[in-house]
Amino acid sequence: MLEIKHTLCPSCSVGCGLNVIVNNGEIVGTFPYKRHPVNAGKNCLNGRKSIDSYQNRIEKAIISKSETDVEKAMNEVLKELNGVDNSEVTVICSGNNDIEAIEALIKFSESKNYNIAFYADNLKDFSEVASYDEIASAEKVFVIGDLLYENPLIGRRIVHAKQNGAKIYALGKTEKSVTFNIADETSNSTVQEFLENNQGNIDSSSVIVFNYVDSQEDLDKIESLNCKFLPVFSKSNSKGALSIIDVKSSDEMLELLESTKVLLVFNDDIVDELDFDFGKISKIISFSPFSNKTTEISDIIVPTKSWLEKDGTFVNAMGETQKFTAVVESDVLSEIEIIEKLNG
Amino acid sequence: MSNILAKSQNENIQKAGECGGAVTSILKYLLDEEIVDGVLTLTPINDVYDATPTFITESEDLLNAAGSYHCAPTMIGDLVQKYLFDKKVAITVKPCDMRAIDELITRHKINEDNIYVIGLNCGGTVSPVSGRKMIDLFYDANPDDVVSEEIDKGKFIIELADGSEEAVKIHDLEEEGYGRRDNCQRCDVKIPRNANIACGNWGAEDGWTFIEINDEKGQELIDGAKKAGILETKSPSQDAIDARSKVENIMINMAKKVQDATYPSVNEMDEWSRCIGCYACRDVCPICWCFENCELNKSYFKIETKMPPSPIAFQGVRLSHMSFSCVDCGQCDDVCPMDIPVSLIFDKLQKKYYNRTGYVAGLSDNIKPPLYSPEKTEL
C-alpha cells in the first residue's frame, strides 16, 4: 500500500515539514509537504536525504564490535554502570533527542546522581529570538555563516528580506559563499570584528542571524545590541533542549569528559563535535539509531528508535513547539524504554 | 470525441462530491468492478489545504477524497512511475499531471494500458501556505474555518464551517502577489484532452459534471459506469458547450498575456546566483526519471565541492537537456528553497522550442521528445 505521511526534518533546527513515502511498510522516498508553514514543501538536500540514514539504521546491538541481542547488551550496560562510582558516569543528551526523551534523561540522571551534559554548537539559549517572518521583514540582516547554503529555509527568509529591499551584511569563513552572492557587504573577519565594525548600522530594524560564533563573548555582544537575533542550531531540537537543561560550553564539556569513566551517549555524535581523546574514557556506550563517529568507537551499541519510528516533540530555532508522529511501526526500543530498563 | 453531462446515482456521493459526484462515481465503478487495483487521488490529511496523493483500494474511502482541492498543487506522475508501474491504477489529473504522464508514457516509464486517466479542468492552483495567508489578509474569515474552496467565474471562493461563502476576484488577489501559483497564471492548457475523459464544472448545469469523452477507453468507462447503475448521463445543450469553450478561451487568453509579461522579465543568471545545488528541482521534476543514472550525478558534474555552486554546471546543463520537455507544472518552483522561478525559465525555452518545431511537451502525440535517447529506456 502506497502512503504519504507527515513528519519533521531532523537535519537542523529550522523545523521543516517533511512528507515520507511509505510503500508496503517500507520508507521509499520523500514528497513535498507544501502545507507546512515553515518550509511550504521546500526541503534542502540534507532534509530529503535524511531518510537514507533510516535505510542504513543500526538493527543489531553490538558489544566489542560483535553483534548480539539487545537484552545481552543492556545487561552489559548495567554491569558497566554498577562497576563505577555514579559520579564517574556521564549521560550525553543532545538536540537530536526529542523533548520527551530529554525530560526522561534528566530525571534518570538526577535519580542516579550521574552527570548530564548537553552541548549546542557552543551557542546558548536566548529567551527572545527573532521569528522567521521578522527576518523577511527586517530592513537590515546581518548573517553570520553561509545560511543560504547551510540552513536554506532560513536563507530563504534572507532572500525575501533582500527582495523586500533590505541590506544584507554577510560574514563567512570562506572567500566565496552563496550568502555572499546576495549580500551587499561581505566579510571574512572574526565575529567580534564583524559586530564591532557594523555596530553603527545595527538598530531596531535589524536582525542578526547566525549559525556559529567564535566565543562566548560573541554571544554576549550580540545580546547587548539593540536588535532582534536568531541563533540557528545544527540539531533539530537544540532549542527545545536548551529550555529544559543547562547547556555546556565546549570547555566545560572537555572538563567533564576528563573525569568520566562510563559515557552514555543518547543519539548524538559527540566524538565528531569535540576535540577530545575519547580513548581516556573506560567505556563508551551509544544508544543510537544510526552509525556515526561515536558509535564507531563505542564499546557497546544499543539501537534506538529513530524519529521516523516514534511520536515526539521538537522545538524549532524560533521557539515553536512541533509535534511529530511515527511514520512506520517498529519494535526497536525508544530512549524512554531504554531508561525504564536501566532503572529496572 | 463526444460531450456529456453526468451525475452520480448514489445519494451519498452526490452530497460529498462536486457537480453531482460523477468523478467519484466513475472511480467507485472502477474499484467495485475490480477493473483497477486502486485509485490515486487527493485526500485531505488535516484540512482543506493539506490534500495529499492517496492510494485508495476500498471504494468507501473515496468519499473522503470527494471534492476539489485547489490548495494542493501536487504532481502524481512520478508516484505512478516509481511505485505503481505494475498496478492497474485510476488517476485523477490536472492538465500538467496529464502532460507529465504523457511524456512518461513516451519514455516507457508508465504503461498506458495500466492506467485509467480521469482529467479535471484546471483554472489553476494555489500554494497552501500563501493561500492561508491570502485568506487571512483579503477575506473576513479565519483560514482554519474554511471547509472547502472553489475557483469559479474569476473568483476564489471559500466556504466556511457555518455554510457561508466569501469570494474575491482572482485578478485582485494576483495584483497583490497572491492567488494562483505563477506557473498556473501562465498555463495555457486548461482541459486535459489527452486523458481518457476530461471532467469539470465549466459549461455544466448545477448538480452535473461536464465530461469530454476523449477516446475509446473513456467511452468504455462511461458506458460501464452507466451499466453498473452508478452514473446518469444526458447530452449537454449547445449553449453549455459554447459556455465551456468561452471559459476555456478566456483563461487561455489571460495566460498568454501573463506569458508575454513574464518571459522577458526573467534574468536567468541573476536568479541562478542563489542556487545552492540541492537538486530539489531535478528530483521533483516528473519528467526527470533517470534518478541515480542522471549524468549530473557523475563526478565531472558534481558541484557540491565547489562553493558557491556554478549555475551553468547544474541549471545550465539541466535547462539544455530538459526544457524542451517542460510541462510547466511548477513543482520545481514549489520545492526550490531559494525561490528561483525555475519553471518560468524552463517554460520560456519550451515555448521558444514550440515556436520553431511545433512540439508541446505532453501534448504532441506520437512524436519522440527532443534529445530522446533510446539507450536510456533500458536503464
Secondary-structure topology with pairs:
The complex is a heterodimer of chains A (344) and B (379).
Chain A: E1 2-8, E2 17-23, E3 26-31, H1 45-55, E4 61-63, E5 66-68, H2 70-82, E6 89-93, H3 99-112, E7 115-118, H4 132-136, E8 140-144, H5 147-150, H6 152-163, E9 167-171, H7 178-182, E10 185-187, H8 191-197, E11 206-210, H9 216-224, E12 228-231, H10 238-242, H11 250-258, E13 262-266, H12 270-273, E14 283-288, H13 293-296, E15 300-303, E16 312-315, E17 321-324, H14 335-342
Parallel strand pairs in A: 6-7, 6-13, 8-9, 8-11, 9-10, 11-12, 13-14, 14-15
Antiparallel strand pairs in A: 1-2, 2-3, 4-5, 4-15, 16-17
Chain B: E1 2-8, H1 11-16, H2 22-32, E2 38-44, E3 51-56, H3 62-65, H4 77-83, E4 89-93, H5 95-106, E5 115-120, H6 128-138, E6 146-152, E7 155-160, E8 165-169, H7 170-175, H8 182-186, E9 197-200, E10 209-213, H9 216-227, E11 231-234, H10 238-262, H11 268-272, H12 280-284, H13 311-322, H14 331-335, H15 342-357
Parallel strand pairs in B: 2-4, 4-5, 5-9
Antiparallel strand pairs in B: 1-10, 1-11, 2-3, 6-7, 7-8, 9-10
Helix pairs in contact in B: 2-9
